[in-house]
Amino acid sequence: MQFTETVMDHFENPRNVGALEDADAVAEVGSTECGDTTTLYLKIRDNRIADVRFRTLGCAAAIASSSIATEMILGKTLEEAWALTNTDVVEALGGLPEKKIHCSVLAEGAIREAINNYRRSQGLYPW
Amino acid sequence: MPADRIRYFDHSATTPTHPDVVAAMLPYFTEHFGNPSSLYGIAEESREAIARARSQVAAAIGATPEEIFFTAGGTESDNWAIKGVAYAHRDRGDHIITTAIEHHAVLHTCAFLEEQGFSVTCLPVDREGRVDPEAVRDAITDPTVLVSVMTANNEVGTLQPIREIGAVAREAGVPFHTDAVQAIGNVEIDVERDNIDLLSLSGHKFYGPKGTGALYIRKGTKIANFVHGGGQERGRRAGTENLPGVVGLGAAIERACTDIPAHAARLAGLRDRLLAGIMEEIPDVTLNGHPTERLPGNINVSFGGIDGEALLTLLAMKGVCASTGSACSSGSESPSHVLLALGTPPQRARASLRLSLGDLTTDEDVDYLLALLPGAVARLRRLSGADA
Protein backbone atom coordinates (compact mmCIF):
# COMPACT_ATOMS: atom_id res chain seq x y z
CA MET A 1 0.00 0.00 0.00
CA GLN A 2 1.54 3.30 -1.06
CA PHE A 3 0.68 6.11 1.34
CA THR A 4 1.76 9.75 1.12
CA GLU A 5 4.21 11.17 3.63
CA THR A 6 1.37 13.13 5.20
CA VAL A 7 -0.68 9.99 5.75
CA MET A 8 2.28 8.17 7.29
CA ASP A 9 3.02 11.19 9.51
CA HIS A 10 -0.53 11.26 10.84
CA PHE A 11 -0.49 7.50 11.31
CA GLU A 12 2.84 7.46 13.15
CA ASN A 13 2.23 10.71 15.07
CA PRO A 14 -1.53 11.18 15.29
CA ARG A 15 -2.72 14.49 16.71
CA ASN A 16 -5.39 14.95 19.41
CA VAL A 17 -5.70 11.32 20.44
CA GLY A 18 -7.81 10.48 23.48
CA ALA A 19 -11.01 11.60 25.15
CA LEU A 20 -12.35 14.79 26.74
CA GLU A 21 -13.78 14.33 30.22
CA ASP A 22 -15.99 17.39 29.99
CA ALA A 23 -16.81 17.28 26.30
CA ASP A 24 -19.69 19.39 25.03
CA ALA A 25 -20.33 16.95 22.19
CA VAL A 26 -19.50 13.30 21.64
CA ALA A 27 -20.19 11.09 18.64
CA GLU A 28 -19.35 7.51 17.83
CA VAL A 29 -19.71 6.43 14.22
CA GLY A 30 -19.03 3.13 12.52
CA SER A 31 -18.33 2.20 8.94
CA THR A 32 -20.62 -0.40 7.46
CA GLU A 33 -18.06 -0.99 4.77
CA CYS A 34 -15.23 -2.25 6.90
CA GLY A 35 -16.12 -2.22 10.59
CA ASP A 36 -13.94 0.77 11.52
CA THR A 37 -15.20 3.04 14.33
CA THR A 38 -14.33 6.59 15.31
CA THR A 39 -15.31 8.46 18.47
CA LEU A 40 -15.02 12.24 18.45
CA TYR A 41 -15.03 14.57 21.49
CA LEU A 42 -15.58 18.33 21.09
CA LYS A 43 -15.29 21.22 23.50
CA ILE A 44 -17.26 24.18 22.19
CA ARG A 45 -16.89 27.86 23.23
CA ASP A 46 -18.62 30.77 21.53
CA ASN A 47 -19.69 28.61 18.63
CA ARG A 48 -16.09 27.56 17.99
CA ILE A 49 -14.36 24.23 18.50
CA ALA A 50 -12.05 25.01 21.40
CA ASP A 51 -10.66 21.49 21.83
CA VAL A 52 -11.00 18.15 20.09
CA ARG A 53 -9.96 14.54 20.67
CA PHE A 54 -10.52 11.35 18.74
CA ARG A 55 -10.22 7.61 19.03
CA THR A 56 -10.25 5.34 16.02
CA LEU A 57 -10.28 1.58 15.59
CA GLY A 58 -9.33 1.19 11.96
CA CYS A 59 -6.61 1.00 9.36
CA ALA A 60 -3.81 3.51 8.82
CA ALA A 61 -5.92 5.53 6.39
CA ALA A 62 -8.78 5.79 8.89
CA ILE A 63 -6.46 6.87 11.70
CA ALA A 64 -4.68 9.44 9.53
CA SER A 65 -8.02 10.79 8.27
CA SER A 66 -9.34 11.27 11.79
CA SER A 67 -6.10 12.86 12.96
CA ILE A 68 -5.91 15.42 10.18
CA ALA A 69 -9.63 16.16 10.43
CA THR A 70 -9.23 17.17 14.09
CA GLU A 71 -6.46 19.58 13.06
CA MET A 72 -8.69 21.01 10.36
CA ILE A 73 -11.65 21.77 12.64
CA LEU A 74 -9.81 23.02 15.72
CA GLY A 75 -10.60 26.70 16.22
CA LYS A 76 -13.26 26.72 13.50
CA THR A 77 -16.88 27.71 13.95
CA LEU A 78 -19.45 24.94 13.99
CA GLU A 79 -20.65 26.07 10.53
CA GLU A 80 -17.11 25.83 9.16
CA ALA A 81 -16.52 22.45 10.76
CA TRP A 82 -19.83 21.16 9.42
CA ALA A 83 -18.72 22.08 5.88
CA LEU A 84 -15.69 19.77 6.03
CA THR A 85 -16.06 16.87 3.59
CA ASN A 86 -14.12 13.65 3.21
CA THR A 87 -12.80 15.05 -0.07
CA ASP A 88 -11.23 17.91 1.88
CA VAL A 89 -9.67 15.36 4.22
CA VAL A 90 -8.29 13.27 1.36
CA GLU A 91 -6.88 16.40 -0.28
CA ALA A 92 -5.24 17.50 2.95
CA LEU A 93 -3.65 14.06 3.23
CA GLY A 94 -2.20 14.45 -0.24
CA GLY A 95 -4.43 11.71 -1.54
CA LEU A 96 -5.41 8.17 -0.57
CA PRO A 97 -5.30 4.98 -2.66
CA GLU A 98 -8.69 4.48 -4.32
CA LYS A 99 -9.50 1.43 -2.21
CA LYS A 100 -8.95 3.51 0.95
CA ILE A 101 -11.00 6.58 0.13
CA HIS A 102 -13.95 5.13 2.05
CA CYS A 103 -11.82 5.25 5.21
CA SER A 104 -11.94 9.06 5.16
CA VAL A 105 -15.72 9.18 5.36
CA LEU A 106 -15.80 8.30 9.08
CA ALA A 107 -14.21 11.61 10.10
CA GLU A 108 -16.79 13.69 8.21
CA GLY A 109 -19.62 11.66 9.70
CA ALA A 110 -18.29 11.92 13.23
CA ILE A 111 -17.91 15.71 13.06
CA ARG A 112 -21.44 16.19 11.81
CA GLU A 113 -22.98 13.83 14.31
CA ALA A 114 -21.06 15.49 17.16
CA ILE A 115 -22.24 18.94 16.07
CA ASN A 116 -25.83 17.74 15.90
CA ASN A 117 -25.59 16.05 19.29
CA TYR A 118 -24.39 19.40 20.62
CA ARG A 119 -27.21 21.29 18.92
CA ARG A 120 -29.79 18.90 20.35
CA SER A 121 -28.30 19.31 23.80
CA GLN A 122 -28.71 23.06 23.40
CA GLY A 123 -32.34 22.68 22.43
CA LEU A 124 -31.63 23.46 18.79
CA TYR A 125 -32.75 21.56 15.71
CA PRO A 126 -30.09 19.33 14.17
CA TRP A 127 -28.65 20.35 10.77
CA MET B 1 12.53 5.04 8.59
CA PRO B 2 13.21 1.97 6.45
CA ALA B 3 14.22 -1.22 8.24
CA ASP B 4 17.73 -2.58 7.75
CA ARG B 5 16.45 -5.93 6.55
CA ILE B 6 13.09 -7.59 6.12
CA ARG B 7 11.79 -10.19 8.54
CA TYR B 8 9.67 -12.52 6.45
CA PHE B 9 6.70 -14.04 8.27
CA ASP B 10 4.51 -14.66 5.22
CA HIS B 11 5.72 -18.01 3.86
CA SER B 12 2.11 -19.14 3.35
CA ALA B 13 1.68 -16.34 0.82
CA THR B 14 4.81 -17.27 -1.11
CA THR B 15 8.41 -18.36 -0.63
CA PRO B 16 11.63 -17.33 -2.35
CA THR B 17 12.85 -19.81 -4.97
CA HIS B 18 15.81 -21.65 -3.46
CA PRO B 19 19.13 -20.87 -5.18
CA ASP B 20 19.70 -24.60 -5.88
CA VAL B 21 16.32 -24.72 -7.60
CA VAL B 22 17.17 -21.65 -9.67
CA ALA B 23 20.48 -23.25 -10.64
CA ALA B 24 18.68 -26.42 -11.73
CA MET B 25 16.29 -24.37 -13.86
CA LEU B 26 18.73 -22.05 -15.64
CA PRO B 27 20.13 -24.43 -18.30
CA TYR B 28 16.57 -25.04 -19.47
CA PHE B 29 16.08 -21.42 -20.49
CA THR B 30 18.98 -20.98 -22.86
CA GLU B 31 20.83 -24.25 -23.30
CA HIS B 32 18.40 -27.16 -23.14
CA PHE B 33 15.50 -25.20 -24.57
CA GLY B 34 14.02 -27.75 -26.94
CA ASN B 35 10.28 -28.19 -27.16
CA PRO B 36 9.63 -31.58 -25.56
CA SER B 37 7.21 -32.48 -28.36
CA SER B 38 9.76 -31.98 -31.15
CA LEU B 39 11.49 -34.80 -33.02
CA TYR B 40 15.20 -33.99 -32.74
CA GLY B 41 17.99 -34.54 -30.24
CA ILE B 42 17.64 -31.55 -27.96
CA ALA B 43 13.96 -32.32 -27.51
CA GLU B 44 14.89 -35.68 -26.05
CA GLU B 45 16.87 -33.92 -23.30
CA SER B 46 13.81 -31.84 -22.50
CA ARG B 47 11.63 -34.94 -22.33
CA GLU B 48 14.08 -36.59 -19.97
CA ALA B 49 14.14 -33.53 -17.71
CA ILE B 50 10.35 -33.53 -17.50
CA ALA B 51 10.32 -37.26 -16.77
CA ARG B 52 12.80 -36.74 -13.97
CA ALA B 53 10.67 -33.99 -12.48
CA ARG B 54 7.57 -36.14 -12.78
CA SER B 55 9.29 -38.89 -10.80
CA GLN B 56 10.36 -36.38 -8.17
CA VAL B 57 6.79 -35.18 -7.68
CA ALA B 58 5.44 -38.74 -7.60
CA ALA B 59 7.99 -39.83 -5.01
CA ALA B 60 7.11 -36.89 -2.76
CA ILE B 61 3.50 -38.05 -2.36
CA GLY B 62 3.77 -41.81 -2.86
CA ALA B 63 2.26 -41.87 -6.35
CA THR B 64 3.50 -43.28 -9.66
CA PRO B 65 4.87 -40.88 -12.31
CA GLU B 66 2.03 -41.72 -14.70
CA GLU B 67 -0.39 -40.22 -12.21
CA ILE B 68 1.31 -36.79 -12.11
CA PHE B 69 0.32 -33.97 -14.47
CA PHE B 70 1.95 -30.54 -14.56
CA THR B 71 -0.16 -27.39 -14.36
CA ALA B 72 0.41 -23.65 -13.97
CA GLY B 73 -0.18 -23.78 -10.23
CA GLY B 74 -2.44 -24.78 -7.37
CA THR B 75 -5.39 -22.77 -8.66
CA GLU B 76 -5.34 -24.52 -12.03
CA SER B 77 -4.99 -27.90 -10.34
CA ASP B 78 -8.02 -27.15 -8.13
CA ASN B 79 -10.05 -25.97 -11.12
CA TRP B 80 -9.13 -29.07 -13.14
CA ALA B 81 -9.78 -31.56 -10.35
CA ILE B 82 -13.20 -30.18 -9.47
CA LYS B 83 -14.54 -29.21 -12.90
CA GLY B 84 -12.95 -32.26 -14.53
CA VAL B 85 -14.45 -34.80 -12.13
CA ALA B 86 -17.81 -33.02 -12.07
CA TYR B 87 -18.18 -32.94 -15.85
CA ALA B 88 -16.92 -36.50 -16.31
CA HIS B 89 -19.50 -37.85 -13.87
CA ARG B 90 -22.42 -35.71 -14.95
CA ASP B 91 -24.43 -38.67 -16.18
CA ARG B 92 -24.11 -40.29 -12.76
CA GLY B 93 -24.75 -37.34 -10.47
CA ASP B 94 -24.35 -33.65 -9.84
CA HIS B 95 -23.58 -33.19 -6.14
CA ILE B 96 -20.25 -31.98 -4.75
CA ILE B 97 -19.16 -31.87 -1.12
CA THR B 98 -16.57 -29.40 0.10
CA THR B 99 -15.93 -27.28 3.22
CA ALA B 100 -16.50 -23.71 4.33
CA ILE B 101 -12.79 -23.04 4.81
CA GLU B 102 -11.42 -24.02 1.40
CA HIS B 103 -9.27 -21.65 -0.62
CA HIS B 104 -11.16 -19.45 -3.08
CA ALA B 105 -9.77 -21.55 -5.93
CA VAL B 106 -11.98 -24.38 -4.65
CA LEU B 107 -14.95 -22.33 -3.42
CA HIS B 108 -15.30 -20.13 -6.48
CA THR B 109 -14.92 -23.16 -8.76
CA CYS B 110 -17.75 -24.85 -6.85
CA ALA B 111 -19.84 -21.67 -7.06
CA PHE B 112 -19.30 -21.65 -10.83
CA LEU B 113 -20.47 -25.27 -11.05
CA GLU B 114 -23.55 -24.35 -9.01
CA GLU B 115 -24.41 -21.83 -11.72
CA GLN B 116 -24.09 -24.70 -14.20
CA GLY B 117 -26.68 -26.73 -12.32
CA PHE B 118 -24.56 -28.70 -9.86
CA SER B 119 -25.45 -28.69 -6.18
CA VAL B 120 -22.75 -28.06 -3.60
CA THR B 121 -22.68 -28.87 0.10
CA CYS B 122 -20.27 -26.67 2.06
CA LEU B 123 -19.59 -28.56 5.28
CA PRO B 124 -19.14 -26.43 8.39
CA VAL B 125 -16.07 -26.75 10.62
CA ASP B 126 -15.72 -26.78 14.38
CA ARG B 127 -14.32 -23.84 16.32
CA GLU B 128 -10.80 -24.97 15.59
CA GLY B 129 -11.44 -25.43 11.91
CA ARG B 130 -11.69 -29.21 11.72
CA VAL B 131 -14.06 -31.13 9.46
CA ASP B 132 -15.77 -34.19 10.97
CA PRO B 133 -15.40 -37.29 8.76
CA GLU B 134 -18.84 -38.41 9.94
CA ALA B 135 -20.29 -35.15 8.61
CA VAL B 136 -18.78 -36.05 5.25
CA ARG B 137 -20.36 -39.50 5.45
CA ASP B 138 -23.76 -38.01 6.31
CA ALA B 139 -23.54 -35.55 3.43
CA ILE B 140 -22.84 -38.18 0.76
CA THR B 141 -25.90 -39.03 -1.32
CA ASP B 142 -26.51 -41.03 -4.50
CA PRO B 143 -25.73 -38.11 -6.83
CA THR B 144 -22.47 -37.20 -5.02
CA VAL B 145 -19.58 -37.27 -7.48
CA LEU B 146 -16.76 -35.56 -5.56
CA VAL B 147 -15.53 -34.76 -2.07
CA SER B 148 -12.93 -31.97 -1.83
CA VAL B 149 -11.27 -31.15 1.52
CA MET B 150 -7.98 -29.30 1.88
CA THR B 151 -5.11 -31.01 3.72
CA ALA B 152 -4.07 -27.90 5.63
CA ASN B 153 -5.71 -24.49 5.81
CA ASN B 154 -3.72 -21.51 4.59
CA GLU B 155 -5.07 -18.99 7.11
CA VAL B 156 -5.34 -20.79 10.45
CA GLY B 157 -3.08 -23.73 9.65
CA THR B 158 -5.54 -26.39 10.82
CA LEU B 159 -4.77 -29.90 9.54
CA GLN B 160 -7.74 -32.01 8.43
CA PRO B 161 -8.23 -35.73 9.18
CA ILE B 162 -7.53 -36.51 5.53
CA ARG B 163 -7.00 -40.25 5.88
CA GLU B 164 -10.36 -40.72 7.63
CA ILE B 165 -12.20 -38.49 5.19
CA GLY B 166 -10.58 -40.32 2.28
CA ALA B 167 -11.68 -43.64 3.77
CA VAL B 168 -15.28 -42.42 4.05
CA ALA B 169 -15.26 -41.29 0.42
CA ARG B 170 -13.60 -44.52 -0.73
CA GLU B 171 -16.28 -46.57 1.07
CA ALA B 172 -18.99 -44.66 -0.74
CA GLY B 173 -17.22 -44.93 -4.09
CA VAL B 174 -16.82 -41.15 -4.39
CA PRO B 175 -13.54 -39.64 -5.67
CA PHE B 176 -11.68 -37.65 -2.98
CA HIS B 177 -9.70 -34.54 -3.89
CA THR B 178 -7.47 -32.64 -1.51
CA ASP B 179 -5.89 -29.21 -1.98
CA ALA B 180 -2.48 -29.91 -0.45
CA VAL B 181 -0.95 -26.59 -1.48
CA GLN B 182 -0.02 -25.52 2.08
CA ALA B 183 0.77 -29.03 3.28
CA ILE B 184 3.56 -30.16 0.94
CA GLY B 185 6.88 -30.14 2.75
CA ASN B 186 5.22 -29.51 6.11
CA VAL B 187 3.32 -32.75 6.69
CA GLU B 188 4.00 -36.19 5.22
CA ILE B 189 1.55 -37.18 2.53
CA ASP B 190 1.05 -40.62 1.01
CA VAL B 191 -1.81 -40.89 -1.45
CA GLU B 192 -2.19 -44.63 -0.78
CA ARG B 193 -2.15 -44.44 3.01
CA ASP B 194 -4.33 -41.31 2.98
CA ASN B 195 -6.95 -42.63 0.53
CA ILE B 196 -6.45 -39.68 -1.83
CA ASP B 197 -7.67 -39.80 -5.45
CA LEU B 198 -6.70 -36.28 -6.58
CA LEU B 199 -4.22 -33.85 -5.08
CA SER B 200 -3.29 -30.23 -5.93
CA LEU B 201 0.11 -28.74 -5.23
CA SER B 202 1.85 -25.44 -6.03
CA GLY B 203 5.58 -24.84 -6.50
CA HIS B 204 5.94 -21.37 -5.04
CA LYS B 205 4.78 -22.52 -1.60
CA PHE B 206 7.81 -24.79 -1.12
CA TYR B 207 10.70 -22.72 -2.49
CA GLY B 208 9.98 -23.50 -6.13
CA PRO B 209 9.10 -21.05 -8.89
CA LYS B 210 5.78 -19.26 -9.15
CA GLY B 211 3.50 -20.38 -11.98
CA THR B 212 4.14 -24.08 -11.47
CA GLY B 213 2.11 -26.86 -9.96
CA ALA B 214 0.78 -30.35 -10.44
CA LEU B 215 -2.35 -32.43 -10.15
CA TYR B 216 -2.14 -36.03 -8.97
CA ILE B 217 -4.88 -38.16 -10.55
CA ARG B 218 -5.23 -41.73 -9.29
CA LYS B 219 -5.17 -44.23 -12.16
CA GLY B 220 -8.72 -45.06 -13.16
CA THR B 221 -10.28 -41.78 -12.00
CA LYS B 222 -12.73 -40.44 -14.57
CA ILE B 223 -11.88 -36.81 -15.24
CA ALA B 224 -12.46 -34.47 -18.18
CA ASN B 225 -9.67 -32.28 -19.51
CA PHE B 226 -9.57 -28.69 -18.33
CA VAL B 227 -7.07 -27.17 -20.75
CA HIS B 228 -7.74 -28.34 -24.29
CA GLY B 229 -5.38 -28.12 -27.22
CA GLY B 230 -2.26 -30.07 -28.21
CA GLY B 231 -1.49 -33.51 -26.90
CA GLN B 232 0.98 -32.66 -24.15
CA GLU B 233 0.88 -34.48 -20.80
CA ARG B 234 -0.34 -37.62 -22.60
CA GLY B 235 -3.30 -35.72 -24.00
CA ARG B 236 -4.57 -34.69 -20.57
CA ARG B 237 -3.32 -31.07 -20.24
CA ALA B 238 -2.50 -29.10 -23.35
CA GLY B 239 0.18 -26.46 -23.77
CA THR B 240 3.90 -26.57 -24.31
CA GLU B 241 5.42 -27.60 -21.00
CA ASN B 242 6.92 -24.88 -18.82
CA LEU B 243 10.23 -26.67 -19.08
CA PRO B 244 12.34 -24.61 -16.66
CA GLY B 245 9.36 -24.36 -14.33
CA VAL B 246 8.75 -28.10 -14.30
CA VAL B 247 12.43 -28.76 -13.65
CA GLY B 248 12.29 -26.25 -10.79
CA LEU B 249 9.13 -27.79 -9.37
CA GLY B 250 10.76 -31.22 -9.31
CA ALA B 251 13.95 -29.96 -7.70
CA ALA B 252 11.98 -27.96 -5.12
CA ILE B 253 9.64 -30.76 -4.10
CA GLU B 254 12.49 -33.22 -3.72
CA ARG B 255 14.30 -30.74 -1.49
CA ALA B 256 11.18 -29.92 0.51
CA CYS B 257 10.16 -33.52 1.17
CA THR B 258 13.62 -34.90 1.98
CA ASP B 259 13.32 -34.61 5.75
CA ILE B 260 9.90 -33.29 6.66
CA PRO B 261 10.10 -34.21 10.39
CA ALA B 262 13.31 -32.19 10.84
CA HIS B 263 11.93 -29.22 8.90
CA ALA B 264 8.66 -29.35 10.82
CA ALA B 265 10.43 -29.62 14.16
CA ARG B 266 12.58 -26.56 13.46
CA LEU B 267 9.56 -24.48 12.45
CA ALA B 268 7.42 -25.72 15.34
CA GLY B 269 10.17 -24.75 17.79
CA LEU B 270 10.33 -21.21 16.46
CA ARG B 271 6.57 -20.98 16.21
CA ASP B 272 5.94 -22.20 19.75
CA ARG B 273 8.46 -19.75 21.20
CA LEU B 274 6.94 -16.88 19.25
CA LEU B 275 3.38 -17.81 20.19
CA ALA B 276 4.24 -18.26 23.86
CA GLY B 277 5.88 -14.85 23.90
CA ILE B 278 2.87 -13.22 22.26
CA MET B 279 0.39 -14.81 24.69
CA GLU B 280 2.58 -13.85 27.66
CA GLU B 281 3.39 -10.27 26.76
CA ILE B 282 0.14 -9.07 25.22
CA PRO B 283 -3.26 -9.08 26.96
CA ASP B 284 -6.51 -10.00 25.18
CA VAL B 285 -5.05 -12.32 22.52
CA THR B 286 -6.77 -15.39 21.14
CA LEU B 287 -5.34 -18.14 18.97
CA ASN B 288 -7.33 -18.96 15.84
CA GLY B 289 -7.30 -22.56 14.60
CA HIS B 290 -6.36 -25.87 16.20
CA PRO B 291 -3.77 -25.70 18.99
CA THR B 292 -1.93 -28.87 17.95
CA GLU B 293 -3.22 -30.20 14.63
CA ARG B 294 -1.68 -27.26 12.87
CA LEU B 295 0.93 -26.42 10.21
CA PRO B 296 4.30 -26.27 12.00
CA GLY B 297 4.97 -22.70 10.89
CA ASN B 298 1.53 -21.13 11.28
CA ILE B 299 0.38 -18.64 13.90
CA ASN B 300 -2.95 -16.85 13.61
CA VAL B 301 -3.99 -14.65 16.51
CA SER B 302 -6.57 -11.96 17.14
CA PHE B 303 -5.85 -8.90 19.30
CA GLY B 304 -8.88 -7.19 20.84
CA GLY B 305 -9.38 -3.51 20.13
CA ILE B 306 -7.31 -3.03 16.99
CA ASP B 307 -7.52 -3.36 13.22
CA GLY B 308 -5.32 -6.05 11.70
CA GLU B 309 -4.35 -3.95 8.72
CA ALA B 310 -3.19 -1.07 10.91
CA LEU B 311 -0.99 -3.56 12.78
CA LEU B 312 0.43 -4.87 9.52
CA THR B 313 1.26 -1.29 8.47
CA LEU B 314 3.13 -0.67 11.73
CA LEU B 315 4.99 -3.98 11.36
CA ALA B 316 5.81 -3.32 7.71
CA MET B 317 7.36 0.04 8.68
CA LYS B 318 9.81 -2.01 10.75
CA GLY B 319 10.50 -4.53 8.00
CA VAL B 320 8.16 -7.30 9.15
CA CYS B 321 6.11 -9.05 6.43
CA ALA B 322 2.92 -10.75 7.58
CA SER B 323 -0.76 -10.90 6.68
CA THR B 324 -4.22 -10.42 8.18
CA GLY B 325 -7.80 -11.61 7.93
CA SER B 326 -8.95 -8.00 7.77
CA ALA B 327 -10.44 -7.16 4.42
CA CYS B 328 -10.45 -3.36 4.27
CA SER B 329 -8.14 -3.04 1.31
CA SER B 330 -8.97 -6.27 -0.46
CA GLY B 331 -12.16 -4.68 -1.68
CA SER B 332 -14.47 -7.17 -0.05
CA GLU B 333 -16.86 -6.15 2.68
CA SER B 334 -16.36 -9.01 5.05
CA PRO B 335 -13.23 -10.27 6.75
CA SER B 336 -11.71 -13.71 6.21
CA HIS B 337 -14.33 -16.35 5.35
CA VAL B 338 -12.15 -18.88 7.13
CA LEU B 339 -12.14 -17.02 10.45
CA LEU B 340 -15.88 -16.43 10.19
CA ALA B 341 -16.43 -20.16 9.52
CA LEU B 342 -14.60 -20.92 12.77
CA GLY B 343 -17.16 -18.76 14.57
CA THR B 344 -14.83 -15.80 15.09
CA PRO B 345 -16.82 -12.60 15.66
CA PRO B 346 -16.27 -10.22 12.70
CA GLN B 347 -14.46 -7.63 14.82
CA ARG B 348 -11.94 -10.21 16.02
CA ALA B 349 -11.56 -11.57 12.52
CA ARG B 350 -10.62 -8.04 11.45
CA ALA B 351 -8.17 -7.91 14.33
CA SER B 352 -6.23 -10.96 13.21
CA LEU B 353 -2.57 -11.40 12.38
CA ARG B 354 -1.20 -14.38 10.45
CA LEU B 355 2.49 -15.17 10.87
CA SER B 356 3.70 -18.03 8.69
CA LEU B 357 7.28 -19.05 9.45
CA GLY B 358 9.57 -20.88 7.04
CA ASP B 359 13.12 -21.31 5.82
CA LEU B 360 13.83 -17.57 5.99
CA THR B 361 12.83 -17.34 9.66
CA THR B 362 15.62 -17.21 12.23
CA ASP B 363 15.70 -17.14 16.01
CA GLU B 364 16.75 -13.53 15.73
CA ASP B 365 13.64 -12.75 13.67
CA VAL B 366 11.51 -14.20 16.46
CA ASP B 367 13.37 -12.09 19.04
CA TYR B 368 12.88 -9.00 16.88
CA LEU B 369 9.15 -9.55 16.47
CA LEU B 370 8.66 -10.30 20.17
CA ALA B 371 10.36 -6.99 20.96
CA LEU B 372 8.22 -5.11 18.45
CA LEU B 373 4.73 -6.57 18.69
CA PRO B 374 3.62 -5.66 22.23
CA GLY B 375 4.41 -1.97 21.69
CA ALA B 376 2.69 -1.92 18.31
CA VAL B 377 -0.49 -3.46 19.71
CA ALA B 378 -0.43 -1.15 22.74
CA ARG B 379 -0.04 1.88 20.47
CA LEU B 380 -3.08 0.91 18.41
CA ARG B 381 -5.08 0.21 21.57
CA ARG B 382 -4.29 3.72 22.85
CA LEU B 383 -5.55 5.04 19.52
CA SER B 384 -8.79 3.08 19.69
CA GLY B 385 -9.41 3.64 23.38
CA ALA B 386 -9.25 -0.11 24.05
CA ASP B 387 -6.74 0.59 26.81
CA ALA B 388 -9.11 2.99 28.58
Note down, in words, how this protein is organized.
The complex is a heterodimer of chains A (127) and B (388). By secondary structure, chain A is of the alpha+beta class. Helices cover 40% and strands 20% of the residues of chain A. In chain A, strand 1 and strand 2 form a beta hairpin. Chain A is globular. Chain B folds into 2 domains: 134 residues, Aspartate Aminotransferase, domain 1 (Alpha-Beta Complex), CATH 3.90.1150; 238 residues, Aspartate Aminotransferase, domain 2 (3-Layer(aba) Sandwich), CATH 3.40.640.10. Chain B contains 14 helices and 12 strands. In chain B, the strands form 3 sheets. A 7-stranded mixed β-sheet of chain B has the order 2-8-7-6-5-3-4, with helices on both faces. Chain B has a 3-stranded antiparallel β-sheet with strand order 9-10-12. The radius of gyration of chain B is 22 Å and the shape is globular. The interface between A and B is medium-sized, with 26 and 23 residues.
Brief synopsis:
Chain A is of the alpha+beta class and about 130 residues long.
Mean pLDDT of chain B: 96
Rg of chain A (C-alpha, Å): 14 Å
Derived structural class of chain B: alpha/beta
Number of domains of chain B: 2
CATH topology of chain A: Sufe protein. Chain: A
Number of strand segments of chain A: 3
In angstroms, what separates the terminal alpha carbons of chain A? 37 Å
Output the helix-strand order of chain B.
EHHHEHEHEHEHEEEHHHEEHEHHEH
Number of helices of chain B: 14
Unreliably modeled segments of chain B = none
CATH architecture of the largest domain in chain B: 3-Layer(aba) Sandwich
CATH class of the largest domain in chain B: Alpha Beta
Low-confidence spans of chain A = none
Overall 3D shape of chain A: globular
